[in-house]
Amino acid sequence: MRAVDLIQKKRDGQKLTSNEIKWLVEGYVAGTVPDYQMSAFAMAVYFKGMTTREISDLTMNMVKTGQEFDLSAIEGVKVDKHSTGGVGDKVTLILAPLVASFGVPVAKMSGRGLGHTGGTLDKLEAIKGYQVERSQEDFIRQVQDIGVSVIGQSDQLVKADKLLYALRDVTATVDTIPLIASSVMSKKIAAGADAILLDVTVGEGAFMKTVDEARELAQTMVDLGKAVGRKTVAVITDMSQPLGRAIGNRLEILEALEILQGKGRQDITHFICELAQIMLGLADVEKTIKEIRQHLENGQALAKFEEMVAAQGGDLEDLYRPVKVAHVLEIPAQDTGVISALPAMKFGLYAMRLGAGRAIKSDDLDYETGIVFEKKVGDSVQKGEIVAKVYTNGKISSELVTEFQKYVKINDGVQSLREIIEIIS
Ligand code: URA
């Protein structure tokens, strides 16, 4: 077989056989198919797509390029969760301990952020001492002991995705359904949970820009999960504005603590309770939103979070410390009215330039910097009132304020945003 023939076949819109896909994935990981051919193949997939059978072959062959975690030593139904990426997405930090506080084990591997999107792992590393790298044995033992662990994705897991994701990132081939579905589901299948909740984001700050595209991605991933015997549910969620109040690693930890104490914004708190209800349902634990919310209000979820942080070496005193930055810039509203848009991608990139995110993989992060919104879409605002605060260690200039203000849309026609747009199960 020759890679060039397979690229040409896909370029011309033909289907690849199971054997051809196996050969390509194995060759890529072994280094016999070079990056330049794999990127041409990814671009051909971007334009011509893949059939359900091809996506399934790609996914399962990717799974085989690494270690598969065996979580059978942990009692109960193990539920995992994955988001296709967002801005201000601190959901896992709250959801994992919240679900675990009901006795449902959560063994979760998370990733890092890149570009405008944040990553749970970076947020956890903003906690002094928190270790994201654990052996499989330690990870399993911690879930057996306290019911929850969130660690970094093992280097041994789905090697094909590690290589391919980095390549897609620099060849404009991330945002295509077959490659996102196989990337996400190969990792989830290899990570070994019995049930999977997929958060498929849609909107300006997400890879999927329309609900139709998000629905197709969600259905593709749900089908892949079910085909290998994993209970899988996808929720399509809004990513047209940042999630919650904060963007930035420590700022998001502080917001997560606020929500875990039952003091968060109502919209994000309710959203997380809805996700928890679905995750618990996947483990056959039926709870009302009121019962779930009680675990935020009575401190049970927070206690579980603190237990997890301590078990992974995190410093519980430092956890609650306010951020330390050189400057806090207040952004006043330029008009009176109702906030109608806060484009997630624009603010994700803005926060990235403050040091909260990475433009390229090797960039260092400044864990303290970022944005806290005082107002979100649908909130009323008076001219001159503070819409947000910018936390920076860099140079301050009037452009930082005017650029921010340019993105804040007031009275442009309020969209009624719901966090969960649709559930696909
Ligand atoms: N998240 C992933 O893990 N993979 C993708 O391809 C996109 C989002």
Automatic annotation (TrEMBL):
<comment type="function">
    <text>Catalyzes phosphorolysis of the pyrimidine nucleosides uridine, thymidine and 2'-deoxyuridine with the formation of the corresponding pyrimidine base and ribose-1-phosphate.</text>
</comment>
<dbReference type="InterPro" id="IPR000312">
    <property type="entry name" value="Glycosyl_Trfase_fam3"/>
</dbReference>
<dbReference type="Pfam" id="PF00591">
    <property type="entry name" value="Glycos_transf_3"/>
</dbReference>
<dbReference type="InterPro" id="IPR036566">
    <property type="entry name" value="PYNP-like_C_sf"/>
</dbReference>
<dbReference type="Pfam" id="PF02885">
    <property type="entry name" value="Glycos_trans_3N"/>
</dbReference>
<dbReference type="GO" id="GO:0005829">
    <property type="term" value="C:cytosol"/>
</dbReference>
<dbReference type="InterPro" id="IPR035902">
    <property type="entry name" value="Nuc_phospho_transferase"/>
</dbReference>
<dbReference type="GO" id="GO:0006213">
    <property type="term" value="P:pyrimidine nucleoside metabolic process"/>
</dbReference>
<dbReference type="InterPro" id="IPR013102">
    <property type="entry name" value="PYNP_C"/>
</dbReference>
<dbReference type="InterPro" id="IPR017872">
    <property type="entry name" value="Pyrmidine_PPase_CS"/>
</dbReference>
<dbReference type="InterPro" id="IPR018090">
    <property type="entry name" value="Pyrmidine_PPas_bac/euk"/>
</dbReference>
<dbReference type="InterPro" id="IPR017459">
    <property type="entry name" value="Glycosyl_Trfase_fam3_N_dom"/>
</dbReference>
<comment type="similarity">
    <text>Belongs to the thymidine/pyrimidine-nucleoside phosphorylase family.</text>
</comment>
<dbReference type="Pfam" id="PF07831">
    <property type="entry name" value="PYNP_C"/>
</dbReference>
<dbReference type="GO" id="GO:0046872">
    <property type="term" value="F:metal ion binding"/>
</dbReference>
<dbReference type="GO" id="GO:0006206">
    <property type="term" value="P:pyrimidine nucleobase metabolic process"/>
</dbReference>
<keyword id="KW-0328">Glycosyltransferase</keyword>
<comment type="subunit">
    <text>Homodimer.</text>
</comment>
<dbReference type="GO" id="GO:0009032">
    <property type="term" value="F:thymidine phosphorylase activity"/>
</dbReference>
<feature type="domain" description="Pyrimidine nucleoside phosphorylase C-terminal">
    <location>
        <begin position="338"/>
        <end position="411"/>
    </location>
</feature>
<keyword id="KW-0808">Transferase</keyword>
<dbReference type="GO" id="GO:0004645">
    <property type="term" value="F:1,4-alpha-oligoglucan phosphorylase activity"/>
</dbReference>
<keyword id="KW-0479">Metal-binding</keyword>
<protein>
    <recommendedName>
        <fullName>Pyrimidine-nucleoside phosphorylase</fullName>
        <ecNumber>2.4.2.2</ecNumber>
    </recommendedName>
</protein>
<dbReference type="InterPro" id="IPR000053">
    <property type="entry name" value="Thymidine/pyrmidine_PPase"/>
</dbReference>
<dbReference type="InterPro" id="IPR036320">
    <property type="entry name" value="Glycosyl_Trfase_fam3_N_dom_sf"/>
</dbReference>
